[in-house]
Design brief:
CATH superfamily of the largest domain: NAD(P)-binding Rossmann-like Domain
Largest sheet: 11 strands, mixed
Structural class: alpha/beta
Strand content: 25-35%
CATH topology of the largest domain: Rossmann fold
Number of strands: 17
Oligomer: single chain
Helix content: 25-40%
Shape: elongated
Distance between the termini: 51 Å
Bound molecules: L-homoserine
Length: 438
């Protein structure tokens, strides 16, 4: 059979990695796909001629539309990232009847509904495995492996850069900016690394996982998003003393009132497997009604792991190129006419436990004032830790863990506690998840 001709947009970290893995594993890939896969046309403004294999077999242009409009190309691989011109290029490829493989989670989270509708209309596939959790085949697992289940919730460490930064800060006491620079040099970080640090990249990925889990439209703007910028080394130390690790977690949960979609720093009990996922590694824990919990772990970023997911998608598309459109796996796991709008809960209605840290005068009655406010707001306290002040210092650090409550209750309590004369500075809070089955 004729090899499948592929057009590649972008020859950066992931594009270069994809070309190299396709070249190195060509024979094995052909055995799996049933035919060869060759990149015949690529678009890039700059690339490393010494580091990328197979360049001599590609026509290379600076104009990505030349690739998208090339009649020889059957599959377009979009690896330039960002919203635009990626969206226009992908829509043009679809219009031209080409299948698309992308690692672009921002594009799918923001414009996926429109892109999948266009693909459905044209009878082509848009595959995006590399968009979530790097090389881990989590989309395949959720869309196909778990398709007998009702998924209850998904919780994941889904940004490799953020996890790398938190791990290096905790284990080696390294400086935030220094670790971020290393993550950039290693090709983990987004072109704009604030996407990693501020949780936006994780929110893109969580938005996609939520749609796959619950059969809801992609709605990135409804994801509550907090980054890792406010995690202090003090909190990391106190969390450890209480038997927890701080991780940047994405959580999507089905509740009777609606769907929770949120990414934020989270205390997780250190005995949980996912609390021990360190460095650039990602992990996604899925609670499904029949299977129960299942955990997917692997490299969340980097050239070869991401290329692994991109090429798995290319092979899938190559295998199904002649399949009837109706018999292909639906883009968002559920048949397009079965995607339903379930309400998304505002963060104030979300239920979690909390870790609080505050500075208070070290004198009798202070704790009583704080616990009275907690009681007034119907908040039950799970644990209290008071760090003795050093000699000569009259303020103590108080750490509290609450039981599960609604976010609006803790907001009201923190407002009242902050106004006490005996409290100094902000009351810091981090959500706590035990990741139990319910
Ligand atoms: N910047 C992303 C991360 C790359 O660090 O996880 C993989 O999506």
């Amino acid at each position: 059979m004729e090899p499948v001709k592929v057009g590649l947009l972008g020859l950066g970290t992931v594009g270069g990695g994809t070309a190299n893995v396709l070249a190195r594993n060509a024979a094995e890939i052909a055995r799996r796909a049933g035919r060869g896969i060759v990149i015949t046309h690529a678009a890039a403004h700059s690339y490393d001629t010494d580091a990328i294999m197979g360049l001599d077999q590609m026509k290379i242009t600076q104009d990505a539309y030349e690739v998208v409009n090339d009649p020889e190309v059957s599959i377009v691989i979009e690896l330039i990232g960002g919203y635009s011109p990626a969206k226009e290029l992908v829509l043009q490829a679809i219009e031209n009847g080409k299948h698309v493989v992308t690692a672009n989670k921002a594009l799918i989270a923001m414009h996926g509904n429109e892109i999948f509708a266009a693909a459905q209309e044209k009878g082509v596939t848009v595959a995006f495995e590399a968009g979530v959790a790097g090389g881990i085949p989590i989309i395949k697992a959720m869309r196909e492996g778990l398709s007998a289940n009702r998924i209850e919730w998904v919780a994941g460490i889904i940004n490799g850069t953020g996890n790398f930064i938190l791990t290096e800060m905790r284990d080696k006491g390294r400086d935030f900016d220094d670790v971020l620079a290393e993550a950039q040099a290693l090709g983990y970080a987004e072109a704009d690394p604030t996407f990693d640090v501020e949780g936006i990249d994780a929110a893109h990925k969580l938005c996609i996982l939520s749609s796959l889990a619950f059969g809801i439209p992609l709605q990135f703007d409804a994801v509550y998003t907090e980054g890792i910028g406010n995690v202090s080394s003090e909190d990391v130390v106190y969390a450890n003393q209480l038997g927890y690790r701080i991780k940047h977690l994405g959580v999507a949960r089905r509740t009777e009132q609606g769907i929770e979609m949120r990414v934020h720093p989270t205390l997780i009990p250190e005995k949980c497997l996912i609390a021990n996922v360190d460095g650039v590694m990602n992990a996604v824990l899925v609670q499904a009604d029949k299977l129960g919990p299942s955990l997917y772990y692997g490299a969340g970023a980097g050239a070869d792991p991401t290329a692994s997911a991109v090429i798995a998608d290319i092979i899938d598309v190559a295998r199904t190129i002649t399949t009837d459109v109706q018999n292909r796996v639906p883009h968002l796991a559920f048949q397009p006419d079965q995607i339903v709008d379930i309400p998304i809960l505002p963060i104030t209605e979300v239920t979690t436990a909390y870790y609080l840290r505050m500075q208070a005068d070290d004198r009798p009655g202070v704790l009583a004032e704080i616990t009275r406010i907690m009681g007034d707001n119907d908040i039950s306290i799970e644990a209290v830790l008071q760090k003795e002040p050093e000699s000569g210092v009259t303020r103590a650090t108080i750490i509290m863990l609450t039981q599960k409550i609604r976010e609006r209750q803790i907001i009201a309590a923190i407002d009242a506690i902050t106004q006490l004369d005996v409290i100094h500075g902000d009351v810091h809070r981090i959500r706590v998840e035990t990741l139990d089955a319910d």
